[in-house]
Amino acid sequence: MRARGIGVNLHYIPVYLQPYYRQLGCRPGDCPEAERYYGEAISLPMFHTLGEDRQDAVVQALTEVLSS
């Protein structure tokens, strides 16, 4: 997506993997489904000034990436 000019980010980091919770004993593997989701989910551009032309570009890029 970035190669197509679309900024994406990781959606979230599981709370129990944050440093505070790791010092309490939480470890990778404690919640495998949360970790699987973390490894797969992304945040797409979404803000109030995103025009329809850019929305279309995001959808087109996502369609191309997912179909390749």
Automatic annotation (TrEMBL):
<dbReference type="InterPro" id="IPR000653">
    <property type="entry name" value="DegT/StrS_aminotransferase"/>
</dbReference>
<protein>
    <submittedName>
        <fullName>Uncharacterized protein</fullName>
    </submittedName>
</protein>
<dbReference type="InterPro" id="IPR015422">
    <property type="entry name" value="PyrdxlP-dep_Trfase_small"/>
</dbReference>
<dbReference type="Pfam" id="PF01041">
    <property type="entry name" value="DegT_DnrJ_EryC1"/>
</dbReference>
<dbReference type="InterPro" id="IPR015424">
    <property type="entry name" value="PyrdxlP-dep_Trfase"/>
</dbReference>
